[in-house]
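no rush on this but wanted to send it before i forget. theres a chain ive been looking at and ive put its sequence and its fold in C-alpha cell form underneath. i want to understand how the C-alpha cells follow from the sequence so walk me through it. thanks a lot i owe you, the record is right below:
>
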Amino acid sequence: MFEVGFSELLLIMGLALLVLGPEKLPKVVGEIGRWMGRARAMARQFREQLEDEAAESSRRRAAATSANITPAAEPAAAEPAAAEPAPAETAPVDASVTPSVAEPAPKAGPDNTP
C-alpha cells in the first residue's frame, strides 16, 4: 500500500530540517515519538482487551457445555443463536419407524368394541 523506505525517510528529515530549523526539529521529533508511543500503547491495550473477551467467552461456553446447560445471552458481537433448523437441514424420517396414517387405531375395551 504505502511504503516509506530509508531514502524517503532521509528526504523527509532533510526537508523538515530546512523548514523547521535545527532549534525546533528535536522538539517536533520528540513530540511525534510521544504520540506514536501513545498510539502503540492504545493499540496494545485494545488488542489485549479483545483477547481477554474472547478467552472469557470461550470459558463461558466450555463451562455451559460441561454443565449441560445453554449459555446465557451473549453480547451482540457473539455468534447469533440458531433458531430452528431449516427444512433442508432436518434428518429424513424413516418410514419403518413411523406408523402409517392408513392403519386404524386400536379399539378400546376388553372385547375391542368402542
Remarks:
- Helices lie at 6-66.
- The mean pLDDT is 77.
- The longest helix spans residues 6-66.
- Residues 22-66 form one domain.
